[in-house]
Amino acid sequence: MALGFEDAAYLQKSGAPLSGLEVYQSLVEHFEGWAEAVEGTHGLCLLEVMSLDVPTTTRHFSSNVSFHFDILEALSRQYLVPPTAFAMALAEAGLFSAAGRPLLCYPSSGDYCRILGLHLTRQPLRVRLAEESDLAPLLGLQELAVPQPGLRASEAVLRKRLLGARGGAFVAESFCGRLLGAIYTARVAEGFGFIAEPGAGEELVAEADCLQIVGLHADPASPSVGSHLCRFALQLAHLEPAIRSVVGISRCDGWHCSNIKSQEEYVEQHRRGELSDRILAFHTSQGAEIVRLIPDARPSDVDNMGAGVLIRYDPGQVLRRPQQPTAHTLAEGRVVSLAEVLTVLRDVLAELGAADATGSSLSLAELGLDSLELLELRERLAARFALRRSEELPVSLLSQSSSTEALAAAIHQRLSGTWSVPKAGV
Predict the structure, then answer these.
(1) 106/316 Cα distance (integer angstroms)
(2) What confidence tier does 323 reach under pLDDT thresholds 50, 70, 90?
(3) PROSITE patterns per the record (predicted)?
(4) Within 252-403, where are the H helices?
(5) pLDDT tens across 92-132, in order?
(6) How many angstroms separate the Cα of 259 from the Cα of each of 278, 325, 333?
(7) Which of 210, 384, 242, 181 is nearest to 312 (CA)?
(8) pLDDT range class, residue 314, cuts 50, 70, 90
(9) DSSP code of 320?
(10) What band does 4 get if pLDDT is binned at 50, 70 and 90?
(11) pLDDT tens-digit series, residues 134-157
(12) Alpha helix segments (H runs only) across 64-129
C-alpha cells in the first residue's frame, strides 16, 4: 500500500512545487508535537478532510466536491493528504485509535474516505514503513517469533519483501528504536490463489482488490504488538479504495497435540466455540471469519500435515464498530484458556499505556496505573469478556493482585466458575 501521493500536487508560497514526501514528513513532525502534548491525557479528537486520487474522484464525481474543493485548498496552501498517508503519519508519531473507539469515515458506505474522524491516544510505540536497513533485526525477530525453522522466510525472501512490496511491509518499534514486531502484506487477486509458503508468488499485483497478510511477527516479550499491527493493517486497507477484503492463510496451533483426528473437525470446533486454538483465536477475536481449510497449502508445516486455514477480514466492518470481546463467556459455551485471558489482559494494559504491559512479574501499581485507570481497566475487561454487571471484577482485586499473571489467573477462575475473591497479595 503506497502513501497515495501519486495524484497529489502541492505548491510552496513562491509557487515552486512541493513534493508529497516533503508534505508527509512535515505532517509527521506536526503529529509528533501533538503526541507529546496529549501524552497522559484523554487523547486527541480529529476530524479532517482527505484528498482523493483521480480514479476515485472520477468514479464519484457527482456525489462529492473534491474536484474543485481540493484545487482551492491546494492554491491556498491548505495541503490535503490521502487518507493512507494521514494514517501512516499518525502511526509514525505514535498516535493510534483509542481502545474501543471505531474508525469513522464519510461516506459511511466505505467506497472511499473523504472525511476521517478519530479519537487518538499516544502509545509507547510507533509504526513505520520497513526499510532495507531493517533486514538484520527482522531476521532476528523472525527467529524469536517463529520457532519452527521450516516456516521462516529466507533472508532473500525478506529482502524481496522490503524492496519490492511498495509499502507492504511495516515495523513496530519503541521510541528508543527497539524492534517489536513486523507485518508483511501483498496485493493478490482473490480468484487466482493465495500466498502460502514464504516467497511463493509474493509479487505485487497493483490492481488487485484483495490484501493478504503474508507474515506477522511479534517479539514474544511484547505479545500485544501483533494485534496492534494487524489492526493497523486493516485500517490502511479500509482507507485504500481499491481494497475490498483482507485475507490470510493461518495455521492451527494445537491440533497436532489434541485428540481430535480430523483437522476439519478441530477448526469447526473452534468456530463453534467448543475449543480455543491460540493462533486462530488471534484472528477470530479481531473480527476475522474462518473460510475453509486448505489442504497442502503449506507443505513445510509438518505439525498440520501441510494444511492451512484461510481467514478473511472485512476491514470496514471490523473498524466501523467498537472493539468486540476477544473471549466469550461460559454462557456461550466457550472454554477460555488461561493463556488467552493473559493475552487479553496484556492487550488492554497496552491500550491504557501501561509502562510495561508484558512484565508479568509487576503489579498494576508498579505499572503506574492510578485509581481512575483501574476503573477504566475494569470496564474494558468487562467489555472484552462480556461480563454482566453482577459479574464485574472488584477494584480491590485489580489493585491487590501481585502481578499480571496472578490477575489473569483470578479472571480465568471467574470465567471458569471457580471464582473466589482472593486475599491481598495474590
Answers:
(1) 12
(2) very low
(3) CARRIER (PS50075), PHOSPHOPANTETHEINE (PS00012)
(4) 263-272, 278-284, 315-320, 338-351, 371-384, 395-400
(5) 999 998 866 778 888 876 778 899 999 999 999 999 999 99
(6) 16, 28, 20
(7) 210
(8) confident
(9) H
(10) confident
(11) 999 999 999 999 988 889 999 999
(12) 66-75, 83-92
Name the grid cell of 8: 497529489
361 CB neighbour count, 10 Å cutoff: 11
Cell of 72: 482551492
| 295 compared with 350, residue with greater pLDDT | 295
Q: Does the structure show a pLDDT above 80 at 392?
A: no
Nearest C-alpha neighbor of 222 from the set 356, 128, 354: 356
Assess contact for 32 and 95: CB atoms under 8 A: no
The rounded mean pLDDT for the chain is: 82
What the chain holds in terms of domains, given with CATH numbers, is: 10-123 (no CATH), 127-320 (3.40.630.30), 330-416 (1.10.1200.10)
Distance, in Å, from the CA atom of 314 to the CA atom of 408, rounded to the nearest integer, reads 31
Give the side-chain half-sphere CA count within 13 A for 101: 17
Query: How do residues 155-194 score in pLDDT, each as one tens digit?
Result: 999 998 888 755 689 999 999 989 999 999 988 876 555 6
Grid cell in block for residue 311: 481467514
Set of cell numbers at residue 59: 468514479
Q: What is the pLDDT of residue 86?
A: 96
List phi, psi (to 5°) of 315: -60, -35
Q: Under 8 Å CB-to-CB from 176, ≥6 apart: which residues? A: none
The pTM for the full model equals 0.74
Question: What's the pLDDT at 333?
Answer: 42
Q: Which of 171, 228, 232, 216 is nearest to 358 (CA)?
A: 228
* Residue 319: per-residue pLDDT: 61
Tell me how far apart the 2 most distant CA atoms of the chain are, in Å: 73
CA–CA distance, 149 with 168 (Å, rounded to integer): 23
Given a contact cutoff of 8 angstroms between Cβ atoms, the answer to whether 355 and 367 are in contact is: yes
Distance of alpha carbon 110 from the chain centroid? 19
User: Do 48 and 86 form a contact (C-beta atoms < 8 A)?
Assistant: yes
C-alpha cell at 255: 491440533
CB atoms within 10 A of CB 243: 20
